[in-house]
Request: fold
Amino acid sequence: MKRGYHHGNLRQALVEAALTLIVAKGPQGFTLSEAAKAADVTPAAVYRHFAGRDDLLAEVARQGFDIFAALLEYAFDEGRPSPIAAFEATGRAYLAFARKYPGHYQAMFESGLQPGKHPDLAQVAAKARATMDRAADNLARGLPADRRPPASMISAHVWAVSHGVVELFLRGNGGPQPWPPEDLLETAIGIYLRGLGLLAPDL
Reply:
């Protein structure tokens, strides 16, 4: 006998089932029927909430970006205690999110979804990116105007470094690594900030 769901929470039950399957098989490694089975509902019931697997993955990713945006905002803390500390904190928040929410992370960044096809997903993804841009803009104000890269470029660089550390070393895709991912990211950000002239060079 299938579980009885009140209207609305079947949708979330399917999201939770998808998260379990994503962690076990990857975002492209399961079918909508498997998600229905994991949620203990009929496949027909799924289509009352999601048009297909990509639609379900988009909802998982949307919820992930919502959590991610909140974590970034908390880490940024309106630039406190300093622009550099706040900027570094957003990088650490990226790693913390990937470690704590692996299913959401994979749906967001490894599912092949195109946010432009999912307006709700695109909106919340932009919110997360905006916080990183704010942290970068706050930081860049410490540079002379003629040596100041666009804030969006700075945040894109750190996003790329953070993503690389997560993919290669936090998730183990780069093989054994003698340094913790947090140390790798902190060192990379330090080198980057020194290159911009925002940190004094080591003597």
